[in-house]
Amino acid sequence: MSRLSWLIVPAIAVCCASAANAAIVTNADFETGNFSGWTVNAGTDASHPPIVIGYNNTNGFPNGAYGESVPAPVGGLTSGAYFSSDFAAQSISQSLTLTANTGYTLSFDLYAPQNGRNNPFDASLFASLNGTPISSVFSADSLNKGWFHYSTTFTATSASLYNFALNFLGGGTTAADFVVDTVSVGNISAIPEPSTWAMMMIGFVGVGVIAYRRKKNVTALRIA
Description:
By secondary structure, this protein is an alpha+beta fold. The chain has a single domain (20-192), classed as Jelly Rolls (Sandwich). It has helices spanning 3-18, 114-117, 194-223, and strands at residues 39-41, 51-54, 79-83, 89-98, 102-111, 123-129, 132-133, 138-139, 148-156, 160-170, 178-190. The strands form two sheets. Strands 1, 4, 6, 7, 8 and 10 form a six-stranded antiparallel beta sheet that branches. A five-stranded antiparallel beta sheet has the order 2-3-11-5-9, with no helix packed on it.
């Protein structure tokens, strides 16, 4: 490998690494069977806190969704986070270290059990950073039957430790409920440092030089 080719490789590698979508949420799919890595806030309804339930069972609370069998989302997962309070503001949260001037994706899957949708009151759920919403506010009654996948993007404006939370609010007795799974926050972009820009430019120039030399050599051979 020539010196010029060697310079191209790290430049491209750095570029691609900065755009890598690396998941940073702990226990994002709740496959531990509990809220390991999360902090649970039951609000004013300690008798109906957020719980982790298993899929495809007809158990009652607190081991299932009040007798309704919730199907597993695509991917063969076995457990999900379940919110079912009739009136309390509840949440599950964890601390995330985010990088300044960096774009992130947020995604999760939602399911609204039919027995909860049959209740007279609705319920809502949204994601937040330090208390500020970073997702749509979802109504259980507005979701179609089955799993719904949600994805959006946001930018961290400063390097800091952020409180990331999924927030639930029951609308009254009795209210709808939610199952949440496959929560993901991933780095999608970063503003390169000056040294990174320099390396990238060297790489791009190198690609052009090599292409030019190959074209010149081919032309010379044809003339000969």
